């Protein structure tokens, strides 16, 4: 549902044009669809101010074999939530530390994010799972998340 300045409009593909009048003084929060997703356009997602909720290190060190050598890396997870009028929006992802010859050690997203957001197109149709996750990944990559994440786990 999207707040439209006096009414809530369920924009999902199953909406049937449903409108709900909010309580006076109630904050503009999003509510989920029956499937648990918060549906919004990409432009709406880009206006969300995300706040750091929690970050942590993965308990087990990860390793893999590359050219006969064992490669170990340090990684973790982070979760960010929407603030103000975007209460309920949640975006989380895994990350790992990588050593780059030019810039030193940096924290990078690893894999696709997890979220309760389902992006919709101009016709209010779902992006679909794969397209949605890849679009969310580009949003994550544009967020200034690394410093707060590393501070939360006391690595910087």
UniProtKB/TrEMBL annotation:
Q: Report the superkingdom from the record.
A: Bacteria
Region of interest (Disordered), ranges: 1-20
Which InterPro entries does the UniProt record give? RsaM-like
Instruction: Tell me what this protein is called.
Output: DUF4902 domain-containing protein
Q: Which organism is it from?
A: Roseateles flavus
